[in-house]
Write a structure and sequence with these properties.
With about 850 residues, the chain is mainly α. It contains 45 helices and 9 strands. It has a 5-stranded antiparallel β-sheet with strand order 6-5-4-1-9, with no helix packed on it. Helix 13 runs antiparallel to helix 14 and helix 18 runs parallel beside helix 20. It is flat, with a radius of gyration of 35 Å.
Length: about 850
């Protein structure tokens, strides 16, 4: 991993490690929603629901919920014959947290015949309901004729605790009925509801004390004890102190001490907790007590307890101890954590990450003294020197930077410079590649003249290659102009043994991004003896420098370099320019380069170099490229596509919907979906009548994503037309049963996204677009020739899943129908169609040609269909 890439990973890793990224979660929900819609039987549906439950339990609440998923779940909850399906659907609805589900959940709570569904409904309402729903829950479950299901009654009290009622008197009445319930679970839920609504004081200590004295179930007595602690009073503390000696009540008594409100006897409660910690021999209990001390803000006592747990007698949950130390907010936790890190470097990754987060906590560092800062720094430096999971090293640079930021304000320049020198000295001590990368980012954190001098001196000491590479990248990341001379010197070196260092220096010049780097980059690009690795690094570095003088050297590399990686790097760099002179060379590469990766980068660069309002002649290479290539779904490609359409202007974008080439019309539809501007719905509706089914599918998907219910009539019309007897005659070569089925499924998914029942929609008329079929716009047929002795023709673009269906031989010419990555869909002179590999692992099998298709020559024997055919 390159340092710059690692830097980005550092910024994102914490979120990614804790829960699925928002975009990833949304994609997973959409995928499972589709699986649920296509499930053939109840067993598959239950499996999908189980996977949805497992996924959603990892997050508090999804940021984006596919409408189709909610629609399917509500439909199953209402109509599924199998109770387990209804129950699991209801549970997932609760985890999704969509308030639109509340009406259905209340109805199921009231009417469903299965007790499991009713219980799931009341639990789900805790997350999605409101106070109006609470009224219905109270009336349905706890009303004049209460439910006979005690678990449902307990769930109703939990829901009332979360949702509340406007009528406090009614809540108190319901509480008293719950406290008199014969089932302990209901009595516990009623007490939890009372505390959640803040009404314990309204009931009063005498009534709660009587209930405590007459209660026989120890679990309920414990909840009563906690509720009494909320009301507070010296008598309650005496009661709690007595309960501490009761094995059945001890855990609840400790919890009760932590529940004493700030206005109450908190000091006395904290004293009792400290005594309980000292007397306890159970580490799990000691950890709970330490957490209660943190809650009561007994910072010194909590620090002492947590330090003992971490260093003397670990409870087996050191990660939790570290979290509590950080929450406690005492700066001495830095010293404790440093001692732990240095003494126990072999603990698990989660624990060590918690230690790193504490050592880099800005609030702790802001109040730390010099010794505590030094302890934190020593611990983080020790972590760099030790062997750990590479993931941990991604967290270290931010933590070290935080320590240095706190440190720098308290020391003079001389002390600060000494610390920078110590960082450089670490280069010689680190053996782990991931640790070296982390140190590279740390050293390259900013423009520090002293640090640049130290790195220059270090490079003069002739360190080993990995350490020298790290120092060079650190100079590039630092952004200082002082780094330019030494980077230039290494970049110019052409000695065989210096190739890797020269490559690193060229990459660092790209990271530096200074226009002063242009002369040395030009020299490397124009030197015919430059090795491919250096040529590629220099070309890629030009993207950040973007000096106009680099344009023509890059164009020479683009068309003249032997290695596709160098040509790809040149195309990548040309995307940073906006020069019409680059269009002609890029057009030639789009048309004839053998590497799909080079052509894709050339497509991006061509879009960037196009002028505003480009001519039809300038656009022709793009349409020719799109006839056999997919521009890709990555952000870089789509940034180029969006730039292209911006340069075209609104009027010409609409004209592209009538372009003779289906791939251009389809790309336009995809762009309109992303743009989502006013009026784009109408344009997408028109694309539903396009003669190409792939354009229709893209339009249907786009209408679903736009979320405009006004598209329902056009979607229904497009769906109904697929059943027309003469439907195939209105379509082009894209017509197939597979594509028709895909279009129908896409329209169904669009209706689900729109939350519309198609049976209730009146279809509208679709107007067939008037396509411009002028011959001057037709793309040229692309042909390729075989450049190896023998090449397999397969039924799929894969060496593992594609089966051999024929052979191609040296000098055979084929027509290219489409291109997917390194594979070409081809048709031979004798009308055989299949997939052939263009290149693999640096070896080229097919290249563009102007030769016509001719019947293939018969091979001398069949033996060539063996060893040489394995090259694909």
């Amino acid at each position: 991993m390159r340092p710059r890439i690692l830097f980005i990973a550092v910024a994102l890793f914490t979120v990614i490690a804790a829960v699925p990224a928002a975009a990833e979660l949304t994609d997973d929900l959409a995928r499972l929603s589709t699986e649920l819609g296509r499930a053939a039987d109840d067993a598959v549906r239950l499996d999908v629901l189980a996977r949805l439950t497992a996924l959603l339990e990892e997050v508090e609440e999804p940021q984006s919920i596919p409408p189709a998923l909610v629609t399917r779940l509500l439909d199953m909850a209402d109509r599924a014959a199998e109770p387990a399906l209804r129950r699991d659907s209801v549970s997932v609805l609760g985890l999704l947290g969509d308030p639109d589900a509340a009406t259905t959940l209340v109805r199921l709570l009231r009417d469903d015949a299965d007790f499991g569904v009713r219980r799931a409904a009341v639990d789900a309402l805790v997350r999605v309901g409101d106070r109006d729903d609470a009224v219905l829950i109270a009336e349905t479950v706890l009303g004049a004729e209460p439910s006979s299901d005690y678990q449902l009654r307990a769930g109703a009290y939990r829901a009332l605790g979360a949702l509340g009622l406007d009528d406090e008197a009614r809540l108190l009445n319901l509480f008293r009925r719950g406290l008199a319930d014969p089932y302990p679970a209901v009595r516990i839920a009623a007490l939890e509801m009372l505390r959640a609504r803040g009404l314990a004081a309204e009931v009063g200590q005498p009534e709660l004390r009587r209930a405590y004295e007459f209660e026989t179930a120890s679990a309920v007595r414990g909840e009563l004890l906690v509720t009494l602690a909320v009301v507070d009073g010296e008598e309650t503390l005496e009661l709690i102190e007595t309960a501490l000696g009761d094995a059945e009540l001890r855990a609840d008594a400790l919890r009760a001490l932590a529940a004493v409100p700030p206005s109450g006897e908190r000091d006395e409660a904290a004293d009792l907790l400290e005594e309980a910690f000292a007397d306890s021999t159970d580490n799990a209990e000691r950890l709970e007590i330490a957490g209660y001390l943190v809650e009561l803000r007994r910072r010194e006592a909590a620090l002492e307890a947590l330090t003992a747990l971490l260093l003397e007698d670990p409870p087996g949950d050191e990660e939790r101890v570290l979290e509590l130390l950080r929450e406690n907010g005492h700066p001495a936790a830095l010293e404790t954590t440093a001692d732990f890190v240095i003494a126990k470097p072999a603990v698990g990754l989660a624990t060590m990450r918690a230690a790193v987060e504490l050592l880099g906590d800005a609030d702790l560092l802001a109040t730390a003294d010099e010794d505590q800062l030094e302890d934190a720094d020593e611990a983080l430096s020790a972590l760099l020197r030790q062997k750990h999971d590479p993931v941990l090293y991604a967290d270290l640079p931010p933590a070290v930077r935080a320590v240095e930021a706190a440190w720098r304000g308290r020391f003079d320049d001389e002390d600060w410079n000494d610390r920078l020198r110590e960082r450089v000295e670490l280069l010689d001590e680190l053996d782990e590649p991931a640790a070296l990368e982390a140190l590279t980012i740390l050293l390259g954190r900013g423009d520090e003249p002293v640090l640049v001098d130290e790195l220059n001196d270090y490079l003069e000491s002739e360190p080993t290659e990995p350490r020298a590479v790290a120092a060079l990248h650190a100079l590039g990341l630092g952004g200082s102009t002082k780094a330019l001379p030494v980077l230039t010197e290494y970049a110019r070196s052409s000695r065989p043994g210096d190739v890797q260092l020269s490559v690193a220096a060229l990459e660092a010049l790209g990271e530096l991004g200074l226009p002063e780097s242009a002369p040395v980059l030009t020299r490397v690009l124009e030197d015919p003896a430059t090795p491919p690795l250096r040529l590629t690094a220099a070309a890629r570095a030009c993207a950040a420098v973007a000096d106009p003088n680099l344009l023509f050297p890059l164009l020479e590399v683009l068309e003249g370099a032997v290695e596709p990686e160098s040509r790809q790097a040149a195309a990548y760099a040309l995307a940073a320019f906006s020069e019409p002179q680059a269009l002609a060379p890029l057009a030639r590469v789009l048309r004839s380069d053998a590497s799909p990766r080079v052509r894709r980068e050339a497509f991006v660069a061509y879009c960037h170099n196009l002028p505003a309002n480009p001519s039809d002649e300038q656009l022709l290479p793009l349409s020719q490229y799109l006839s056999t290539n997919d521009p890709g779904d990555d952000d870089r490609s789509w940034t180029a596509v969006e730039l292209l359409f911006t340069k075209l202007g609104a009027e010409r974008i609409e004209e592209l919907l009538e372009h003779p080439q289906p791939s251009v019309r389809r790309l336009t539809v995809q762009y309109l979906t992303r743009r989502a501007a006013p009026g784009d719905r109408e344009l997408l509706e028109g694309a539903l009548a396009d003669p190409n089914l792939l354009v229709n599918i893209a339009a249907a998907r786009g209408l679903g994503e736009l979320g405009d219910s006004a598209a329902a009539g056009a979607l229904k019309a497009a769906f109904n037309q697929t059943f027309d007897l003469y439907y195939a005659s209105t379509k082009d070569s894209s017509h197939s049963t597979v594509n028709v089925d895909k279009l129908r499924r896409t329209i169904e998914d669009a209706f689900l996204r729109l939350s519309i029942n198609p049976a209730e929609v009146e279809e509208t008329k679709l107007d067939k677009p008037q396509l411009d079929t002028g011959p001057e716009e037709e793309p040229e047929t692309r042909r390729m020739e075989v450049v190896v002795d023998a090449l397999r023709l397969r039924d799929a673009p894969s060496t593992t899943t594609g089966n051999k269906i024929g052979m191609l031989y040296l000098d055979d010419v084929v027509e290219v129908l489409s291109v997917q990555d390194n594979w070409a869909e081809v048709r031979t002179a004798d009308e055989r169609a299949g997939w052939a590999c263009i290149e693999l692992e640096g070896e080229t099998f097919l290249r563009d040609t102007e030769r016509p298709l001719v019947p293939p020559a018969e091979p001398d024997n069949d033996e060539t269909d063996g060893e040489a055919a394995e090259t694909d």
